[in-house]
Amino acid sequence: MEQSDSNLAKEKPADVPNTEGMSLGQSGARYNQWLGKLREAGILKAERLLPEMRVPVPTALPSLMGRGAAREGLVQEIKALQPWGYSIQLAPGVLTGGAEALERTVYRSHLISGAIREGLRLCGRTPQGATAVDFACNHGYFSLLAAELGFDAVRGFDLREVNLRKARLLADQFDLASATFEQRDVYTYEGQADVVLNLGLLYHVTDPVRLMELSFAATSTFCIVDTITYKSPVSAFILRTNKDQSHHAEGAYNAELHPTYRALIDLMHAAGFVDLMEVVPEARPDRACHPLYDKSDRRCLIGFRPGAVVERLPG
């Protein structure tokens, strides 16, 4: 005899999180509890569905952070623009954050710069003579990372003027005039660059399809997409609500759609990218660590436009 739904609910194991009667505002905690139980059971593992682009991610500071010199008033300027959200060395011993946060910035610096170099190599290009655009550039650090690689011009956009003030401080401190910054909504961009940086943006929007289509239209070679992802083995987006829009690193809405790993892949293919690779660190003794990437809770993918790649890709 079949059990009724009510009987099934009563027989639910005690360690399964209760989701009955919880408010929408508690949805994030509820979902995280559920994911935790799946991890404990060993049934929520990271999938690897793409060929890998392995790049060096050492613990050494990126060369960009060695460009700045100490000067009077620098510490006060940094404090006046807090919070930064990232730890960046602007001069020896002068940081925008703590040591642990600096390790995470070092990791991402090498991962992204390595992806840019290798992506250009696969396309038969170099930074010299190339252009880049950095969507939602925040404090402009990755725009400047590209500028230091030798790009002729890098344009960074962000919603918030307070973030652009940080970006201009970094540009002055690192003496990189090839990167410029302006306040604008990414959806108003109609130009094209050789390389598009879509870093830490996808999980802050409510229209991921439109954003990825824009990313495809805006690049002549490839786009790097770095984002939070979920391990659920389905192509889907997780709704997160009650976001604080006043925070310097948040998006324009109080709700966000976070992609699963499979959704990210499907989304990039649907937008027009034909060749995808996942950017991962080389195995080496001095490899830097980052908890989100190391647990595959954050992934970095590179998507190439049709015809952009001149060298055969693995996989």
UniProtKB/TrEMBL annotation:
Stored CDD domains: AdoMet_MTases
Coiled coil regions, renumbered to chain: none
Stretches for region Disordered: 1-24
InterPro entries the record matches: SAM-dependent_MTases_sf (IPR029063)
One GO molecular-function entry: methyltransferase activity
Pfam families in the record: Methyltransf_23
GO biological process, one term: methylation
Name of protein: Class I SAM-dependent methyltransferase
